[in-house]
Amino acid sequence: MRERHVISQIAALTGPSSHPLLVQGIGDDCAVLSGQIADDHLVTTDMLVEGVHFDCRWHPAHLLGRKSLAVSVSDIAAMGGEARFALLSLALPSRLGDAWIAEFIEGFVSKLAEEQVILIGGDTVGGDKLVISVTVLGGVAQGKAIKRQGARPGDGIYVTGPLGLAAAALHLCQNQCFKIEDVAMSPWPNLLKALLDPEAQSAMGMLLGSFGGVSAMQDISDGIATDLAHICQASRVAAEIFADCLAPHPDLENYCRLVGLNPIDLQLRGGEDYQLLFTMPPRREPALFLACAAESLPEPQRIGVVREGAGIWLRQGGAATEITFQGYEHRS
Amino acid sequence: MRERHVISQIAALTGPSSHPLLVQGIGDDCAVLSGQIADDHLVTTDMLVEGVHFDCRWHPAHLLGRKSLAVSVSDIAAMGGEARFALLSLALPSRLGDAWIAEFIEGFVSKLAEEQVILIGGDTVGGDKLVISVTVLGGVAQGKAIKRQGARPGDGIYVTGPLGLAAAALHLCQNQCFKIEDVAMSPWPNLLKALLDPEAQSAMGMLLGSFGGVSAMQDISDGIATDLAHICQASRVAAEIFADCLAPHPDLENYCRLVGLNPIDLQLRGGEDYQLLFTMPPRREPALFLACAAESLPEPQRIGVVREGAGIWLRQGGAATEITFQGYEHRS
Fold it and tell me: What is the distance in angstroms between the Cα of A243 and the nearest Cα belonging to chain B?
């Protein structure tokens, strides 16, 4: 059964893996990790289902392999931690041929290398629809994990990069009968990269984790109207976003003009950007920006402020409109 | 979206969970576990797909919930460890109603309680077919995890309980147009329990882990012809099973007589028994049996011997037949 071999193929491609915490990797009932470390451990899991979270008609296999790992690594970054180990489970339909699987593996392996993550286990089974389940384990200095609770009135609200690009790309793919062959030819590579091959903000997550001034954080998977609502609920505060601060990425602006969409809708409600969303007292900004410069990381952008109360509010001109939870829902 | 609530429903049903290692459970991007422990950590993941690993026509939802956790806890037991934390991801088809989901959750929660495992995260998404992905984390005393490698020529081969019951039950369900209503009425409760509601050998796994004399171990998920082959490959040895030592469970014997099957085929090749299969020098038997008696656990049965060479051999009368890897394959 070919699917039995996926995990061992990945292990063979990545070569012998060594990590001070790794006692036993792939090939037994369990992986064994040493407990001899003062760090706290982080654990996260995501399930991606064909037709719900991705579409094989336009998602090249190797980019899907990369994204499968990136979305879970993003959760580790969102705690301020470092991703270390991954487990990959696949339900593989027989219609996906060996070439498709080889490409998926190649992509997954390239992302493992980029993120310096070691595959320590998994499971591969048959199925009608492709289902990908990834668990990632990471570490963070003891007591330093950044949670969703912790945002305080007066804190600034920050994002680490442009929003709405993945949502625009999804619109592009769904409305233009997009196919895999079109990906390389498209005049919208930045939009497509955001959807098909997103980057986890790993270096920025670790910087924010060790920086010390961040009061709450999560990654943006469902759109800030929803993701910020999670932070506000956990922290029992309200948030106000300033429309003026949401300068759209030029490609987002151009695409929206072309197809008659409003960029701000995609920025607020579009999911899957996998940027980090965090809160911090604004007086820490100069120190943070210095730290970013030292690591050649882009400065996060302040887009709003934490208030007392409840709900997510968008301030546009003089008026504030509530937008709580008006985020992205995966399609099914 | 109802599926968003499955993990939080489970969290609500299990109540506030406390564990010396648990810093942050469900409700953030990641769970956080303290690193302040000398134990080694164990990690395992399994994916179960409807129509491949289970069939909702005859698998009651609450028993499927229980089994979903049990199969991964069994992997922790197979390393001699203790299961502690679980993550549950579900792809839920819309045809499964709220009552079905509530029953599944009830079963999963009852198994969490039995195994003293805390749910620390997960993901629930839409899908056409039910897919269940469970990751379990556990612990074992430093350096004491029992691997597949380590079996030595002369070691005895042991199993912790009866074999082939789950395979007989699968035959029963598949060949008698079995339905959920039939489960409670069936004259074969022991067979059905093995298939629908298997027990992980948790107490026995921990005893074998701390006992010290066990040279190799794994759980029986694919049948001993296959599972023992994994131990033998990892340990670079051969195994000889004595047909005379494979006394079938009375219900297996009766069922096989009724339908014209050979019990030894099911015992060797039937999967999903989730008993433990281990090797140990026979001189340690008296001490092990005393330890079992002290914990009111049944004595493991010796069914064969480790030899130099390669392959799995069945000795029946004077002849030895090779049966390497002639195990159970999940249906797809």
Answer: 26
